[in-house]
Amino acid sequence: MLIPFPAPESDPINFGDLPPAINDLLQKGVIAYRRDFSQAESYFREALAAAPEELPTYFCLYKIHTYHGNLDEARAAAQSGMTKAARQAGWPDDWREWTPEREIPEGAGRFALYTLKALAFIHLRRDEKDDAEDILAALRALDPTGAVGWPVIAELAAGLAR
Question: What are the residue ranges spanned by the domains of the chain?
């Protein structure tokens, strides 16, 4: 399950190596999320418009929309971020065409796999169990050790199947 942003205002989230202006917008969005969803989304959308190649913005958007049950928006943000990450990793846009690598990649490749896991969760929340199972089957091959956390989603899916 996705966990809400954990950091209090005094402890910024480490989004990695981002341009300072984009990191600032994401930090403001995280802080705003605790009291004003619309303001948080506005900060995240501003960051996305300014730097659409920066992957953490997509993460922020799909997380807040998932928390609020805006599953169409969550799915769109996750799919956009995953496509962007796949391109940055040199992978095909369609996750069905991804091939297992010797080791779980870092950077854009890891983000793509992590976001694919998030899409499986979003599909479960949308009651699209077949789509979620298709993604989980791909993740079993792409990430056999479960490094991006897909086994948790697989357990949720199994629980729903009972």
Answer: 55-161
